User: Fold this.
Amino acid sequence: MLKRRIAWVAAVPVCFLLVCAILPRSRAQSIFPDESAYTTDVCDRACLYGFVDQYLHALSDKSPSLLPWAKFVRFTENNVALKVGDGLWGTISGLGPEDLRAADPSQGEVAYFGVVYEHDSPGYLALRMKIVDRKIAGVETIVDRKGNGPGPFGDPAKMTELPFMYEDVPADQRTPRARMIALADGYDNTLQLNDGHIYTIFDPACSRRENGVWTANDPHPDPNATGLLAVAGRISCEQGFKLGNYHWDDRLRARRFPLVDEEKGLVLAAGFIDHSGRLGKYTTTDGVVHDSPIKSPHSFCLLEMFKIIDGKIRHAEAIFITVPYNMPSPWLQDAQ
Assistant:
């Protein structure tokens, strides 16, 4: 279990936060300049992790005024623009031990995946923050609550840390930033209309966990479990994709890769998996005919962390929710 170091910051007036009502970017271009236009006082890994500590402390205390906010802030929860202090800020009752982090000092980006409690009911939290001049300029959160939709939901009490996700990648096994993004994008291409073709490079031991459910290379599989996820969980990422198990994933759009942590070998990806629900039956590459588990139109909105070692995807950790079909992103300027 990782120990959090909570850093206190000077409180800012509550009235200042009222300025932070967030509009989708496409409706606020004259208000919010493009993030890439900022020149930042570089905040290193320790600094960025400190912002995570501060944020989690303030969130647990339900006190957004404890944080150093930028003049203009974009804040979303589950792909909806909210005022700072709304949503999870009003319902949180605690945080679990799972604590996965990644930092990208060159872009002022930091991410956190963990377990969160609302009125003592557990769920999964994915957090991304944009830090500009040592102030919080953007917060993107995904909160997966039990019963959200047709996606998987594992037992948060059984979440365990994966040591290799926290380890530095040896210098001779690190992958350049652009290549890491290309591998993550290739993963998305492999998943989209999955038909057995592979458009990225997988480590043979590649594993995947989605909302606490192992969907590839489960280290402790239940031999008696049945169903698509249970069966897929017993094989590697590449084996599952070569079968074409996910042919019902029609499109992976609005892709973003806002954070690349070359030292840890982590890439944070964001996007939507669209399901039209039109597919009835499909045949995997081993000749087996399956009923599609997707029966109605909807989309998954996700934040996903990829671990890349020696130019290969070793693990994918995803937190996602079900949203209306073809829902656009408030984080992208153009229509989806």
Summary: The CA atoms of residues 211 and 319 lie 5 Å apart. Helices lie at 14-17, 45-60, 163-166, 177-191, 228-232, 237-243. The chain is about 15% helix and 35% strand. The longest helix spans residues 45-60.
